[in-house]
Amino acid sequence: MRGAVALALIALLAAPAAAREAKPVIVLTFDDLPAHSALPPDTTRVEIAQKAIKAFRDARVGKVYGFVNGNQTIPEPASAPVLDLWRAAGLPLGNHGWSHLNLNQVSVADYLADIDHTEALIAPLMKGADFHWFRYPFLAEGDDPAKRMEVRKALAARGYRIAQVTMSFGDYMWNEPYARCVAAGDKAAIATLETSYLRAAAETAAATRKDARALYGHDIPYVLLMHLGALDARMLPRLLAQYRSEGFEFGTLAEAESDPVFAADVNPSLPPAPPKWQQMQAKGLAPTPVENVSKMLDSLCRPPSNPVPQ
Ligand SMILES: [Zn+2]
C-alpha cells in the first residue's frame, strides 16, 4: 500500500506542471440564429449553419446552444430551416428575444412580450428539452436598477437562467466586411480578415484568462459569445483547433454556469453581480487591453463611392 502511494507520488511529481493542472474550459454559444449579419453572395443561411454544425461535430465540441431571434425568419424565410438543422444535429436552442431589443431602450412589458414570442417558436422545436436559457441582446441588462430587477424577476418566474458571457473577441465585427470582400472578390482582404480574426481570438483568450486569474486567483469557465455569421462558419475549424492548441477543453453551458461565479445569473431573482470591470476596479486591477481592429475591419473592401461611415 505504502509502495503504491509512493509510486503514485513519483508519477505525480514526474508529470509536467501543465498536465497536473486542470484544463481551462471554454463553452461555445452562438447568437442571432437563424440569420446574423450580411449574407455574402456565394452562400445561404442554411449552408452557414451546415458548416458550423460540421465543425462542431468534427471537433467534438458537444451541445452548443444557439440563441434565437424569431423575427429573422420574416425578412428571410429561407433561413427558418436553420433552426430545424440545429435541432436535428442534437444542438439546443435558447431565447435571445424576438426582435433583438435593447432593454435600455424599451419598456419592461414590451421586452417580456418579445421573450415570450420567441419562446412560442423554440419550445415546440425543443420538444421538452431545456430551452430556459436567456441571452440578453447587446448584453444589455437594463440601465435602470429597478427595471433591471423587474426583468430578472420575470425571467426567474418563467424558469430562465441567464446565459452570461465571460469571453468575447467581437466575432460579429468580421461578418459584414467579409460579405463585402466576397462580393468584391478581394482575396487579399479575405486573408487579412482570417488572420486578424484568429489573432483577436487568441489575444482575447489570453487576456481573459489573465484577468480571471488576477480577479479570482484561478480560471473560471469561459462562456464564449459567438454569432452565426458567414465568416464565423468559415473560420470555425481553425478557431476550434486554435482553442485546443491553447489548452482549452470544450464544456457545456449548464456545467459551466454551475460554477459559483455565475450564481446570480443562474437564479435571476437574486440581485445581479457587479460587472467584471467593477470587481477588478475594487481590487485595484485593470482589464488587460486588446488590440482594437474595428476601424481596420470597417475600411476593408469599401468601393470609392461608399467610403467608411464617419
Ligand atoms: Zn444578438
UniProtKB/TrEMBL annotation:
Pfam families for the chain: Polysacc_deac_1
UniProt keyword annotations, A-Z: Hydrolase, Metal-binding, Signal
Signal peptide (from-to): 1-19
Domain of life: Bacteria
SUPFAM superfamilies: Glycoside hydrolase/deacetylase
InterPro entries given in the database record: Glyco_hydro/deAcase_b/a-brl, NODB_dom, Polysacc_deacetylase_ArnD
Coiled coil segments of this chain: none
Sequence ranges assigned to domain NodB homology in this UniProt record: 24-251
UniProt record similarity statement: Belongs to the polysaccharide deacetylase family.
Function: Is involved in generating a small heat-stable compound (Nod), an acylated oligomer of N-acetylglucosamine, that stimulates mitosis in various plant protoplasts.
Protein name in UniProt: Chitooligosaccharide deacetylase
